[in-house]
User: Fold this.
Amino acid sequence: MKHAHFLVEALVLGLAAQATPAHAFVFTTCGDVKVVWDDPFAFVQNTFSIAPGGQRESGFINAVNRWRGVGGMNDMVSISPFTNSGSTYTIGDDQNDAVVVNRSNIGGNNGLTTLIHDGCFLAGDMEWMEADVQIASDMNFGTPGETSVATDWGRATWIHEVGHAHGLSHAQGFNVMRALQPRPLVGGPGERVDALGDDAQGGRFLYPSGNTERNLYASAQRRNGSDTILQNNPGTVFSCTGGGGTITINSTVGNNGTVNVTQTERWWVNKSSSGHSGGTQLGQWNNSTFVANTAHTRLITLTMPPLTEGTWFLFHGVDVLGVAAESRENDNNVREALIIEVIKC
Assistant:
């Protein structure tokens, strides 16, 4: 009988956690073979700490669904119909627990995943046996604003830790498997936390199904040269009611899918902060192509049209003509952080 071996936060002791040269994601190996679950695994929800119907549960369910929603990846993770209503949980009992705990219980971290494997005795002879996810109770479990840059989003931590439970380790990029928050968000008005390009590619590598996926998203954030996630366009600019001036902005698009997508982008302004459609157009870019499993930020210069006096909000949309049948459609449009004050001049 094989003995259980523990692996915390996917940091390997005595084994190799490595990225393949062609990819940005990181995973655990036994010899030269990737370590995976032999069969799908299910989490048992601790309802004492994750109340049904609450924001903690919503974030947990979203994390499971986002990983299950990665096209080209097997549906490895699920939520068990059984729950644990007690105030205690056990690591090493052949049950995959999902719990919310005091931060002091997990070394001050936002989250902690304990993975148990059956030992690397022969090259390729190692599988995951149990995954227990713990999330800090003092995090914000609400849906983040699409322009937000914060280090306490519980929903992003849920997705990150469920990624660890699949066998993915930390990888720095425009992705949720980054070691630290802030982690990038996608546009609204839907759920703004998702498994992004590197994350999805890693999941497909570990658990491939062969299915293709198309999914573009717009983000109000970017990754700069020092590997920091920032707002694309913070602050306020002024424009005359008669228009004619220009603004230069950062514009981020990601492709979570398995194929390149050619589509049409659009930038517009709206007096409503939730004006994800319609509005007054500032510019359009036809037939732009975004490569699979990438995120790209570029500078765009837009000419301001005549606008009525007051506060306007800037929006950016991808696949605005609906030419790509996407696995997720509610992340195509994003409101940027930039505020445009139109004045008489």
Summary: The longest helix spans residues 55-68. The radius of gyration is 22 Å.
